[in-house]
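Protocol step 4 of 6: record predicted structures for both targets in the notebook before any analysis. Target 1:
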Amino acid sequence: MSKEKIIIIDYGSGNIASAQKAFEHVITNEALDAEVVVSGVAEDVIKADRIVLPGQGAFGDCMENLQNTEGMIEALEQRVLKDGKPFLGICVGMQLLATRGLEHGVHGGLNWVPGQVVPMRERIEDKNLKIPHMGWNELVMPSSGEQDNRHFVLRSTKSLDQGRDHYYFVHSFMFECEYNHHVLALADYGGLFPAAVGRDNIAGVQFHPEKSQDTGLRLLSDFMHWKP
């Protein structure tokens, strides 16, 4: 039986090295029968068992890079939307799940999770806070807070009322979901904003689990064990 293949998509817009090392750490630490492959080739995505889309920079630039990677959008639609393989978007990789992004104009996104990406400055209540939002934040679960009600990928995360798990954020824009049930977790920076979104076999996080030490590694482990 072949190893489970985790593809981290390299489309010129992501923090690839850190994500790769973090996943490899989880695989080694848990002795998982899996391998991490960094690739910008659509044929590799078609063979993926799990798909990770990182991203940093402007929404429009990242989307353009993804569209210009030959066959990548079609491969993602096949493997994620049709075949139902687990997908994780990180930072701008999560934002690209939206219908559109409003950074330096209006840019269409993947439209996998209905909503739009908007400037934080226009949404936060405390206008004196620095943007970009950069630093460590705890998560607030939108449900009753009971562990059983959480999304599987967040099952090991201690929320604000449970402990001191923090994730590392760096962003100036935020994801506004059209439907509240697509918000998996929130964080507070001058007001609550979506820190994780998702539906079906698709999950996205605004923060960087690969830069969030043990807390982030636990989330990546949960993603590796997720069977939507």
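Target 2:
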Amino acid sequence: MRRNVLARIKIGSLDIVSIQDMNVSFPPAGMFPNAPAGGWAVYRPIYPSAFAGDNLSLSIGAYAIVGAGRTIVVDTGLGPKTVPDNPGQLAANLTAEGIDVADVDTVLFTHLHGDHVGWNFQGGRATFPRARYVVQQADWEFFSAQKDDASVQAQVLPLEKTGALELVSGETQFTPEITLVPTPGHTPGHQSIVVSSGGTRAFIAGDMAHHPAQAQETGWSPGFDNDAAMAARTRESFMQRLEEDGSNACFGHYPWPGFGLIVRENGRRIFRAL
């Protein structure tokens, strides 16, 4: 378990806490089939912690939004036993940050891929027993139709039986400080979470981007993108927005804890970690 002061940033009266589940790695060509093989070289010295030898290094986890009488978790990682030699640590890291699973009142899903829903249920019981679960309608319809997907069967479809599933459509003002913003392409109903308080703002981006090189290379799409062209358009639009307005950015697959800013250096748009 890794701890440092940047596991938590303050946005006005709210804290955003980065909770890591695990770290994984993938070959660049396998993950980004449309990226030129030589294109990664320029990004190795810029983002050394985003590489693991010849592979790309990706964090998997969640964010928690704490304050204003609420404890909200955004996504739930890959799960405790999904990778036998690399067990998930989400529950332990929530505890280490002083967050009790029984106090979580809401789980917001950026989308429903297996590495974002893996701690929903353990042994048939909800990990967050008091929570309601908020999903974009388009994502629910897309994933609930995938009856042969093991993670859907174990971690997504049971949400409906809890009686605590809430479906939203389009941009939604969830609380006075939290807005759910559609960022489609990676999945049909992918959404990002905008947190605004005290004149500051943060953008929890989900899988809008997987690697910091995509701050510049918005056309590089992972094979996981459901609609690569739409995902690329979404990335470009929101990377421009983040660069222009200076919002804090929270990217869950970037090197943990994933907090940073999108800035321009030497004519290139980059992710500058906090």
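Step 5 preliminary note on target 2. Residues 1-5 have pLDDT under 50 and may be disordered. The longest helix spans residues 228-245.
Proceed to step 6 after PI sign-off.
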